[in-house]
Amino acid sequence: MAAKASKAGQAAAATQGAEAPAKRRRDAEATRGRILKAAAVEFAQHGFAGARGDRIAQRARSSERMVYYYFGSKDGLFRAVLEGAYASLRDAESAVRLDPDDPPRALEQFCRFVWRYYADHPGFISLLNTENLYRARHLRKSGRLAELVGPVVGLLSRLLADGQARGVFRSDVDPVDLYVAIAGLGYFRLSNRHTLSAVLGRQMAQAEGLERYWVEAARMVSGYVCDRL
C-alpha cells in the first residue's frame, strides 16, 4: 500500500511539475494583457506625457516594475498600446459583413462601420491624436504596420475592382486615398467635437446629429466613387 501511495504521489508531483510552466505562461499573458488594457485607458485620458506608470500598475493590479519588465520603457508600452488599438480595428474591419452583390451598398456599409467604430471608441481617437503630436514616432518603430493596415486597403481594393467590373465605380479611384477620405469624414468631426461644438453652436457628438451627418457623408463618398458629383 505504501509503495502504491508513493507512486501515486510521484505521479501527482510530476503532473504538477509539468503544468507549472504552462500556468506561469498563462499568468504572464494575463498580467501583460491587464497592463495593456490599463495603459490604453491611461494614455487615452492623459496623453503620452501625462501618463504615469504607477496609475497603470494600480489599474492593472500589478506593479510598476512589472510594467517595465514586459514593455521595457514608456515608449515601448505606448507603441504596444497603439498596435493593440490598430489590431482591434483590423479585427473588427475583417468581421464586417458587406453586400456581395451591390458594390455601392457595400461601400456605404463599410463607411458606416468605420464611422460607428470611431464614435464607439473615443479612446482610439485620443490615442491617434496623441501619436500625431509626436509625428508617429512610436508607430514608425513598429514592425506590424503592414499586417495592421494592409487588410483594410486590400478590402477596399477588392470592393473597387468589383464595382469597376460592374461598371458602377470610376476606374481611377485609389484605395488608399479612398480610405483616407472615409476615415477623415468620420474622424475629423469626432476628434474636433469640442471645438466644433463651441464654435458652431451645435453638439457634434449627439446621436441624432451624427446619424444625419453620416447619411450626407455617405452620399459624398458615393458621389466621388461613382462619379456623380
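The above is record 1. Record 2 follows with the same two-line structure.
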Amino acid sequence: MEARQNYSPFQGRSIPVMHSTPPNKKRSCFRKCLCWTICLLLLQVIVVAITGGILYLVLRPKLPKYTVSKLQITQFSLNHDHSLSATFNVSITARNPNKKIGIYYEGGSRISLWYTSTKLCEGGLPKFYQGHRNTTQLVVPLSGHTQDAKGLLTALLHQQQQTGNVPLTLRVRQPIRIKLGSFKLPKIKFVVRHRLLVDGLSEKNDIRIQSSSRKYIRNAVKDRKHQLFGNLIA
C-alpha cells in the first residue's frame, strides 16, 4: 500500500518575513519641534503673568482721570450760507493718581465735541509732563464749521424745549508715554468718550453741566513688547 503524501501549496517556497515599518524620522522630528514650541509658549505666558503681577504689586498702576469742569461758548451762530460756526472753551482737569509713574502727554492729541452724529468743533491738548500724584487744569479751545446746519439748529432747539437739556459727547484721543524713573515706555494711545448733559447751547454763555460720565474705549501700544504695561493700567 502506497503511503499518501500530503501536498502543500507553500512547499518548496520561501515565506516572506514581515518586518515592522521603521519610524519616520521626519515625523518624529516634527513632533519634537511641536512639543518644544508649546513648552516655550507656555513658559512665555507664565513669565509674562509673573512679570505683570510683580509690576502691579510694585507700581500699583492706575488710569489717569479726566473730568470736564466747565464749558463756555464763545461763538455759536448760523451764517448766511446756513453753515454753523462754533467755538468752545473746554476746561479739563487731568489727574495722575500714581505714586511712582509720570505721564508725558505727547503731540497728536485730538479732542472733538459732538451732538449725536454731528461734529461741532475740535482741537487738542498741548504737550506737557505730569508728575506723580499731580492735578493739572487745562483750558482747551475747540472750533469748527458745519455745513447745512439749519436742520441741526432746529433739532437742538427742539431737544432743549422738549427735555430741558442737550446731550453732547466729548471724544478724546490722547497719546501718552509712561515714565518709570528715567525710563520712558513707548506711546500708549487712550481713547476716551465723555458724555455730557448740558442745559442748553447759546452764544457767549457758560454752559451748566447737569451730568457727565466717561468711558475708556481702548488703548493701543505701538511696541508689543511693552503692551503688558498698557494692559495693566487699562
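Residues 62-232 form a domain with the Immunoglobulin-like fold (CATH 2.60.40).
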